[in-house]
Amino acid sequence: MVISAEMVKELRDRTGVSIMECKKSLEESGGDIEKALEVLARRGAEIARKKSDRALAAGTVAAYVHNTRQVGTMVLLACETDFVSKNAEFTALARDIAMHAAAMQPEDEKAVLAQVFIKDSAKTIADLLAQATQKFGERIEVSKLIYFSVREGLPALPTGRQAVGRCYSILIAWLFSSP
Predict the structure, then answer these.
(1) pTM for this prediction
(2) Closest C-alpha to 77, from 139, 168, 147, 149
């Protein structure tokens, strides 16, 4: 079957994966876009496994506070280079994971990976990270995750100038604490 440019474009628009990867997966699936999506998902998992030993030297911190101001999360989404960490899609992924964590209240970074993503019940957070690894060509992982809840009781923060300093101190201590 001949793979048209429109088919490749449609698959690329749906996945964000490179044109050549889209074309290869369409050829392998005989032009069936749904099967090509499965092929890309399988390849994405293989790529993520291959890149799992690479060093993470960059990333972004995303925070989400629910509109009730009763719960919030902070997520450190790590990657290999600052080029990827500054990408708008990467920072949006970090924010989505923070929002997910606020809703689902995972115990830790490992627990969040197995959870079904709240915006798409067909994917887990691990699937999102595998897709991002395939898309950006770098290892990506949730390095740190913290959940805050008023109901669980938070220590009172001081007011005034000291409050800002203490909040930064808490953030810095959290970011540099051992995993």
Answers:
(1) 0.65
(2) 139
